[in-house]
Amino acid sequence: MSSxxxxxALGRRIAFERGKRGLTQGQLGKMxxxxxxxxxxxxxxxxxxxxxxxxxxxxxxxxxxxAELAPEANVVAATARPQAATSLSLALxxxxxxxxxxxDVSPVDVERLGRSADxxxxxxxxxxxxxLSELLGTLIPELEYATRKTAGLDRRRMCVAKAKAYQAAxxxxxKLGEVGAAWVAVDRAISAAEDADEPLLMAAGAFRLAIVFxxxxxxxxxxxxxxxxxxxxSRLVASGDDEALALTGALYLQLAxxxxxANEGDEAYSYLDQxxxxxxxxxxxxxxxxxxxxxxxxxxxEVNVAVELGDAGRALRVAAKTDPSHLSPERRARLLIDxxxxxxxxxxxxxxxxxxxxxxxIAPEQIQNHPTTRELLTDALRADPTNPDLAQLARTLxxxx
Length: 401
Hints:
Layout: H1 4-20, H2 25-31, H3 36-43, H4 52-61, H5 66-69, H6 83-93, H7 96-102, H8 110-125, H9 129-149, H10 152-175, H11 179-195, H12 199-215, H13 219-238, H14 242-261, H15 265-282, H16 295-308, H17 312-320, H18 329-345, H19 349-362, H20 364-369, H21 371-383, H22 388-396
Helix pairs in contact: 2-3, 6-9, 7-9, 8-9, 8-10, 9-10, 10-11, 10-12, 11-12, 12-13, 12-14, 13-14, 14-15, 14-16, 15-16, 16-17, 16-18, 17-18, 18-19, 18-21
């Protein structure tokens, strides 16, 4: 978030405030889900804090205002809460289950509802948040009704559809920063999968839950969720079940990201290696339970891990040899965000802006609403306030600088 001189000044302020509160570097690191060495490097000014969310977490842990900790941080104003976030959250707050229990029995179109649940994931992968919120606003009540008014195979199919719909909602809500609502959605998804007697769909719910916990900065819970799911799937993996292999690989990728965010580089790359081994077994990119797991997604996560660990060079080298063109718009845009982060770490504002502009063309709603976009613009404009590429990008995103 700062120039080399500012980094040392920020480090000194962090050390001073930590000392005032009687905290050791290890204790502060634990509060931030970071290592003691990470805190030491920040306080000595040899490691940059390159994300506004991390700086905000440090200020919160030290119980001071962000402006007091980092007065030089020129923060880009936050965008208004996306309508999709409001709509999806409201859908989860409705008493649909109660209404379904008390309603009279009427015909259920099982085929249509199943197709609509699949369409929900098409919207999620396409980063079409408004379309998804509009669909789920009517689909969730219908599925709550269907699971209570059908029996046998039809009920099982409706439980599967309900699990898919709630997982799609959780995936988008977590990206929009609506952690509480996402947690509710994924909990309902896992319950619906259990009602359907679909253990692999339950494991997919655990995968989503690990992502939600990351968004809530509960890295210990994210790690436990992923590791226990991997253990539960181990028998199926040993039997060669491809879906179980893909889900386990996707869970290992989440463990890699969690470890990187905790500044545990060796663990992060070890988890990546385990995911890569499973991807080689599968040989091709798959999309089991909408995880998009495969060799390409492993490379995308290697880019993310490298950026999280501050290794922009490695991130850009891996990105250069990655072809994500066959993956969803959501995944391709996420890669470009990480590429932009790497260019920002190297203080290359034009390249950073170019990556975000490309991502904006692929998944506009995702880029307009992703908090990292705002953080990147804040940091880049702090370093180069007159850069025309950054100014144009800010205008495009309707940001106020």
